[in-house]
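User: I'm curious whether this sequence folds into something compact or stays loose and floppy. Could you predict its structure so I can see for myself?
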Amino acid sequence: MRLLYHLPLSPYSRKIRLVLAERRLPFELKVERVWERRPEYLQLNPAGTVPTLVEESGLVIPDSGVICEYLEEAYPDSSLLGRTLAERVEVRRIAAWFDGQFANDVTRNLLGEKHMKRLLGRGHPDANALRAGYANLKLHLETIGWLAETRKWLAGNQLSLADFAAAGHLSALDFTGEIDWSVSEAAREWYARMKSRPCFRPLLMDRVAGVDPPPHYADLDF
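Assistant: Here's the prediction. I'll summarize afterward.
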């Protein structure tokens, strides 16, 4: 069976877990503590990041973006990029926004400061980074709400990779209780639809030592 090296709170790992499950591609999970810099893992992925996917054939695919492109080429019958060139551009644009801009504005400032620093023993969170993270999160939630109000899904009429990229980041932040969903009812309703999908169930069962998710985290009715 294919193997996915991951970290439970890595948004990029969560994105790939959702994408694999949505495509109904079975896989096993292996937690990789990237800060340990295991030589065996660095041989698979010299960047030392997660996720890394290893196919049954032995093919190694590192990086969530590379994995998503690989899955599109290897399993085209279950595409998550859209049908037309214009749809694919928009899906890629929204997915890149979450994995780039949102990650820098929000994920790094909140998950990075409050949780990765603790794991790495790098001291206390930076208060300025936290303030920036919460302020940026509010703005991004309003944008997500606008997309959800004007489209069926974030990138258009079809569920796509854009939705899973967003859900990867938001589910990690929701697990740690960082999101005030009252900021945008439309964003909240979109996320409730996402976490009601069968592919989401394993994420809702996740537990991480030292972090207790809020009661609504696994509640499909929110």
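Summary: The longest helix spans residues 85-120. Strands lie at 2-6, 27-31, 52-54, 60-62.
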